[in-house]
Design goal:
The complex is a heterodimer of chains A (about 325) and B (about 280).
Chain A (H helix, E strand, L loop, with lengths): L1 H15 L12 H37 L17 H6 L3 H32 L6 H13 L2 H11 L6 H8 L16 H26 L3 H9 L4 H12 L1 H16 L3 H6 L11 H11 L3 H25 L16
Helix pairs in contact in A: 2-14, 4-8, 4-11, 5-8, 8-11, 9-10, 13-14
Chain B lengths: L1 H32 L4 H6 L11 H7 L2 H34 L5 H10 L5 H14 L7 H24 L3 H9 L4 H12 L1 H17 L2 H6 L8 H11 L4 H21 L1 H14 L1
Helix pairs in contact in B: 1-13, 3-13, 4-7, 4-10, 5-7, 7-10, 10-14, 12-13
């Protein structure tokens, strides 16, 4: 974000003065222009082809397929208009998907982000071994979702898992055997796994943001008599604004698109109680062969992500784009 | 004053250790459980093994399937990285350093790609790969992965290419260096740090990808580590200690890579996020 935006002004200058400066040769200029077009194309076309074929085309096809009733094989000729979409918004499981997405978003913002910020503030102090702690807390983020999911499947196994033994030691036998097995506990358990996997990443974003806050500002506040909490509340937090907004953005997008973790741990169960939009899409598309209906789900997923991204960038991130303090911190 | 400071320091450490325990206990539990028998997991869940049994780990390491999956994951990660970085670097070069009509349009097109969730494309992508006869073919995973990696890679590389002074290019041209040689012999070597960052990013993304290899590879001989882990869990679902040993071994390459490329990984992953 910072580079592409700060570059906007210098771009203008470059447009008028192309970088390769040749001595003027009017007679050859047409040829040169053609030569330069050809080489631009030579460099650009591989990326364009790859992108059009494997990213854009599938999405266009998904939109098209969403208007048909189609099993995935044979001709696609049963045009049904918006029937898949009207069916979708009558489908209790799909409406549940939306609710569960919202649930994870709310928990991520109210629990995971404050926790990550708290950890970042702790590790931003002078502290023995803080480099080791940072590295450790970030480690779950680089593990694959599947490995994480299988690990926690084992930990939350009814009867023999570590979690059951642990709550047994604490005298909370009522929790035993539930976790992923009980519709009322599956979402909170899933959220615990998400925090384990992703909080370190948000912590790193916040640490980068914190390092972008000039020490003199905090010192000045301290001289003016601000206590630790006041310094945090009135100096650090506002200056972290851009980082927090990006962190919120990534949490929302991640929660909407969640697939791997859920698929391996619960496959959406028990009885759809942990199903997400991507899981529903997968179930209909690859298990029940209702490809048209599954495409409609993926189009809705796409529209939600797109509308949210555009809206968020237009109204929330916009003010961060011009000369914010911490946007360069990520580098 | 100093007593207060000591107390504060101690409670600070206590809190960090608590968070550390949350992160580490599941991992340590897995490592230690791998040395137990499944029966002992029930009777002695938290203690050290009564007898350190290496059978679980040794059995997996002696099985060709595990190594096969590691090799598949590595090959696909290298192929994806090479493909993504080569193609993106070329595009980023002209998008950064040439003024031509439609340049910003092309750039915007690529950046919009960031908003396309993989889950949306996966169904038609699967049908397309089936038509191209790319199922059970590593290219069926490599090419889509590379395509979805392009937006981020192009954004990071274009940002870096812009920082290289125009004087260097002018000097090269005056010395008779063409565009292609400039790109290959001067720009790319100068961009080594940025190329390192995007490569590391591509390797990790590919290594951890699950959705696509799950769909594309039916034949077990092509399975990658994440797919293998899931299959293994399904196959030996009652032998908990063995499954835990398998995921511990599956973690080792990623953690080793993290230990080696820590700085670039953290830098790349966080920069990638803030630049999106």
């Amino acid at each position: 974000m910072p580079s592409s935006v700060s570059a906007k002004t210098e771009e203008r200058a470059e447009d008028t003065a192309p970088v390769p400066v040749h001595p003027p040769a009017p007679a050859r200029s047409l040829l040169r222009r053609w030569g330069s077009w050809a080489s631009v194309a030579w460099f650009l076309v591989p990326a364009l082809v790859l992108f059009l074929v494997f990213v854009l085309a599938p999405i266009v096809v998904a939109v098209y397929t969403g208007f048909f009733k189609w099993g995935g094989i044979g001709p696609m000729d049963d045009f049904v208009g918006f029937a898949n979409y009207t069916k979708l918004f009558d489908d209790q499981v799909f409406l549940g998907d939306l609710g569960r997405g919202l649930y994870l978003i709310v928990l991520s913002i109210t629990v995971q982000l404050p926790f990550a910020l708290f950890t970042a503030v702790l590790l931003n102090q002078r502290l023995r071994g803080r480099a080791v702690y940072r590295m450790l807390f970030f480690a779950p983020y680089i593990l694959s979702e599947v490995v994480t999911a299988v690990l926690f499947t084992m930990i939350f196994l009814p009867g023999d898992g570590m979690a059951d033994h642990l709550v047994g030691l604490l005298g909370l036998e009522g929790l035993q055997g539930r976790w992923f097995a009980d519709p009322s506990t599956v979402m909170p358990t899933l959220f615990v796994v998400m925090v384990w996997k992703y909080f370190g990443f948000h912590m790193m974003l916040f640490l980068a943001g914190l390092q972008g806050i000039p020490g003199e500002i905090l010192e000045a506040a301290s001289i003016d008599g601000a206590g630790a909490w006041q310094r945090f509340r009135h100096v650090t937090l506002p200056l972290l604004g851009p980082t927090i907004r990006i962190s919120v953005f990534l949490s929302v997008i991640g929660s909407i698109q969640l697939f791997d973790l859920v698929w391996v741990m619960t496959a959406g169960g028990p009885n759809h109680s942990s199903e997400t939009m991507a899981i529903s899409m997968f179930q209909f598309g690859f298990k029940r062969y209702q490809v048209g209906y599954a495409s409609a789900i993926s189009v809705v997923l796409f529209m939600i992500s797109l509308v949210f991204s555009l809206f968020y960038q237009r109204y929330v991130l916009r003010r961060d784009l011009s000369g914010a303090v911490t946007t360069g911190g990520g580098r | 004053m100093s007593a207060r400071r000591t107390v504060r320091g101690l409670s600070l450490h206590a809190v960090i250790w608590l968070i550390g325990a949350f992160v580490v206990v599941p991992l340590v539990y897995a490592v230690i459980s791998g040395f137990k028998s499944t029966g002992e997991l029930t009777t002695n869940p938290f203690g050290l093994p009564e007898q350190w049994q290496t059978g679980n780990y040794a059995g997996i390491l002696g099985d060709g399937m595990f190594w096969r999956q590691i090799a598949n994951s590595a090959g696909i990660a290298i192929g994806t990285t090479f493909c993504t970085v080569a193609v993106a670097a070329m595009a980023a070069f002209v998008l950064a350093r040439y003024a031509f009509r439609g340049r910003e349009l092309f750039y915007t097109l690529f950046t919009i790609g960031l908003m396309f969730p993989f889950a949306v494309a996966v169904l038609p992508l699967f049908l397309m790969l089936r038509n191209f006869d790319l199922l059970d073919n590593p290219l069926g995973v490599i090419l889509p992965q590379a395509a979805f990696g392009l937006p981020m890679t192009i954004i990071i590389l274009r940002g870096f290419f812009r920082t290289i002074p125009a004087e260097i290019e002018e000097a090269a041209i005056v010395d008779g260096c063409g565009k292609f040689r400039f790109f290959w012999k001067i720009l790319l070597p100068m961009a080594r740090p940025a190329l390192g960052t995007v490569s590391v990013l591509a390797i990790v993304t590919s290594w951890n990808n699950f959705f696509l290899p799950l769909l594309v590879f039916n034949d077990p001989k092509w399975q990658t580590i994440p797919v293998g882990v899931q299959q293994f869990q399904g196959q030996y679902s009652t032998d908990y200690a063995l499954v835990l040993a398998y995921i511990v071994l599956a973690m080792v390459p990623a953690l080793a890579f993290y230990a080696v490329a820590e700085r670039q990984l953290i830098g790349g992953l966080t920069a990638g996020a803030t630049k999106g």
